[in-house]
Fold this protein.
Amino acid sequence: MSEPIREVRRRIRTDHRQLVESVDDCADRVADRWDTARTTDGSAVVDSLRSELERTGSLERLRLTLVDVVAAAGYELPAEPVATPPYVVVTSRGPILRATIDPGRFVIRFDAFEVVRNRASDRPPAYRRRDGTRITISLE
């Protein structure tokens, strides 16, 4: 693992722990509305999660976190990011932060849901709430 990725992971775990907890709480509220432990409506997962993140102010905090962790890693962003694509994207798995910096692109995933693929190819994938939110950081 490279030093910038270690620094970003450390910063998220320490200084942005409450944001991770908020993403986790938002994902719990989304999944609590389902009739079962999973759903096949990926669009509803995205829309509901985005709404919860906006309602709690977490969407804007994700943007601010991106600015902070890029600076903590010793890089500068070429422009001020906004809480919309391409910087902050809400997917059916959870929010993703992206920043293009000098050595490449930082990608920080907050995976709150997992995709469960069915062996029968005619059935759509399902989305299930993970036990917590997994953070994955890469420099591509």
